[in-house]
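Quick board copy: two proteins, each given as sequence then tokens.
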Amino acid sequence: MTGSALAHTLDQLQASLDPKLRQFGFRKHGRIYNRSTADGLTHVIGFQMGRSDPPGTIYIPGLRENLYGLFAVNLGVYVPEVARDHGGREAKSVVHEYNCCIRTRLKRKANKDLWWTISDGGPLVAEISELIQAEALPLFQRFENRDQILDEFQAAPDSTELMAVPRIVCAIILARPPRNPGHRAYIVELAHRLGIEIGP
């Protein structure tokens, strides 16, 4: 199947999934779906087509796989101040998964990503739809606001399956002025546990 035919088939798959994603508040931007939270975060679902490697590419199982004709579903949670102040990943009008500080893939198991063969068949649509409801939505429910991110990652090591630099991300979030002045005591106590000094 040619690249354009693969893209068209993935378009058809997405079209079948669009109603469910709209039902859960996501807006479509090409291969990307964004949903904003009340706390100003963005939940991201992105469909990624496998690359087309040049002729003569040598594939090594487990190191360099042939992903042509396959797709994966990326998930992310975007925190604007983290993207702005760490790594230069600030988004513009559309937030992509690579803009996010919390990142994973649908059906990621033991550091192994699942890639599906591009198809618009009913069984595949049903499988992706079920996985979005069973895996993506519960993940996003864990990260509706900054407090949930801090609670989850305050005791995390230097990297996790979801986040590469939890302490830096937590520090940037903590440095953001709280909208609720009564929340100050919690911020100070949490910063102390993280070993982060913040001003008076």
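And the next:
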Amino acid sequence: MGTDGGGLHRVKRRHLRTVFLPPPFGEHIFQTMCLGHDGSIWAGTDGAGLFRFQGGQFERFAETEGLLGLHVTSVLEDHRTNIWVGTTRGLFVGDGKKFRQLYQTKDSTELVLAMYEDRAGQLWIGTATGVARICEGHLEVFPRPQSKPDVRAFAEDAAGNLWVATMNLGLNQFVKGQLVRHQPAEGLTSNIRTLLADADGSIWIGTFGDGLARLKKGGFTTFTVKDGLPNGIIRFLLGSVN
């Protein structure tokens, strides 16, 4: 493109590369992912264990490495580069080579569906029944609501408030050890899958069916297919907000 005083520009199409699990695990599905400090990608599957993708190659972590739960529901790398893995067999932590079990799952309601590390280095855990926290190696389980919230995501806003996305109770703020439900916007579903805290103090909200919403200074703004979204299901939000 030739411009009037701005020089010559070239626009190149970016290509999407699809990466498949190596044999014999090609039929398995990625359930959760996180980015490692070294640029690698940690990916949990629906029965094949945990994989690290780096340099175009997959490395698998399973029973031999101490990861007894092969159905991975959540994965997170903390600021110390520990790898936390939620599975159907409980919660595991590792150094990128070996894993050990910290807490064992007793039933499906205790599956770790979401994990988040706050600015203080505390690890927050979301399950179908509520919220727990690991601080200095100790697990603290907070009182569970009467209705199962089905926690799916956390976000810490600029003021240090912790927000919690649930599939049954909508958007919540964690206050004094309890989930406090935030009054939703008109037409906003209770099924919220993902959150993103913006540097300006707002919270972006991805829903399962009603598109995208933004909570800013107490007011909601919603974005739907009428505003250009391909559909109303938002499973994940990612942005440069630091």
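Board note added afterward: Residues 117 and 144 are 21 Å apart (CA to CA).
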